[in-house]
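Hey, I was hoping to borrow your eyes for a little while. A protein chain has come my way and I'm curious about its shape. Take your time with it, there's no hurry, and the full record follows here:
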Amino acid sequence: MPQTPNSGGPGAQPGRPVRRTTFGKVLRGQFEPRRVALNKPVNVGLMAELAAERHGPVPIHLDQPFAWDPQQRTETDYVEFAQLVEEFSAVLAAAGVRRWDRVVILKIPNYDVQALAWAAARIGAIPALLSAGLDPDILNVLLERLDARYLVTDAPTAAYARLDRARLDALGIRAIADIDGGVPVGDLWGAAVPAPAPLKDEDPMMITHTSSTTGVSKLAETSARAVSFSAFLESVFPFVHGGNELFASAISHVHVRGAITQLAAFSRGTPLLGIGRPDDETMLRLLRGHRPTILEAHPNAYVGWERLIDDPAQPFAGIRTFINTFDAIHPRTVRRFLNASTRTMPVWWQCYGMTETQAVSVRPYTRRSAARLGERDSRSVGWEIPGVRARIADPATGERRGSQSQPGMIQARTRARALSFVGTPEKFSERRHGRWFDTGDWGRRGRWGQLEILDRVADRIEGVDSCLWLEDVLMTRIPDAEEIVVVPDGEGRPVPVVCMRDGKALDPVDWKSAAAGLAGLGAPFEVSPQDLRRTATVKARRYLLTEMIKNGRPVPLPAEVVLRDGA
């Protein structure tokens, strides 16, 4: 395959050559002594300044400027990033933000979300990151639970969330935004930069929310100690971070994962490509123009990008390391992307974790191991990372099952566990079993001791071993499927919700062939991509799909359905 890609379509400019480096350089980069040590906790409010001092102007490329950057740069670096964090911490202080104040950050998705969070943490405030993709009703429930004093937002997001002056007054929250009832950032820019005053390592450092796949999200507060633990493990993991790489991050930056990976990157001086809007056009432009060596995204984002693999620009040719976090990924997708890389031995790291526990386990794939991956072991998410333990527990007693190969509740024990749930602490307590914590996932140990995720406990269907396994099989057998989600209908029977790529209809002959041997499946329910009602981490909101099936077609759902409590 050619090493210099062709153009990416009509009117596109030729992309730059695929980045190449020798194994020796990559290996030496793992022992680079210049790093910000994370073996002891580092608050994100301090990391930007520490990294700028240690590494200097390491490049940061952006798909869009930071919303509040006066210079509207898409090319910046660690030093300028640290300056922007300082300057926005001055804006927050000038607005009246003080230590222990909760500051909600709710805005158009952008890589700047973490910079805003770091600015708040720098002066001892607690940033609470909310996705602008949540339902307005859910957003307002979370705002009430947070009981925050300040809100950083923008006009389009405030309008979407119905945050007019009356609503802001009712919430008792002051908006830092150019909206009715708010104070524009421009009016506060240029204030004196306060000295850093972060909270202690065991105190809440930030608040992030869980996905809304099963109902209203939970608000998990986490500490500098917890985030630093996960970031330290990532920073020392071989061949992920280093000065010779370009790490492209295309995840939901309001997630705690955004803080972890950015902290790890800054500790090592890794050049970054920050992506806040990972649509097809943006991804082609950035991958063609910058040629990153590492790409991290959500599993379902990768599924959507499968249609980009055959683009003449070969956008994924230079990727040496693919990373997916949050959930297991379809084997079909792993194979396609590894084969799209022109690297000698590209590697895929499938990482399993969640907001409440952060990373739990990891499983690597090469082209060879991905090709051998059979239908029966597609739910493996690998083995625990150092310092983390997992076990299969009886859901009735919360105690360890005698046979770990018998399906049960997956529990984790980790120093990265969240401190509590804001507004619903009783839900957090219900999931604690001493040092063990219910992940909310149903699974078992495989033959080689690996964890296997079968379903979310809340999504299990009576008589079905694993809805997720069924989805893997169907996605492999129907190559043109954009997404397939198996959910219960009104009678509790498993129904596959099918979304085909490029507006195609599901061929009845293809479906009959794909469903062969999968007893008990209902007739497929076809929907458009818009009807999947995805979360910020691109997961389909399964309980809403069940309601859609009950109605027989996509219809607006009443608030009491959308606002059910999440599991």
Remarks:
- Confidence is low (pLDDT under 50) at residues 1-13.
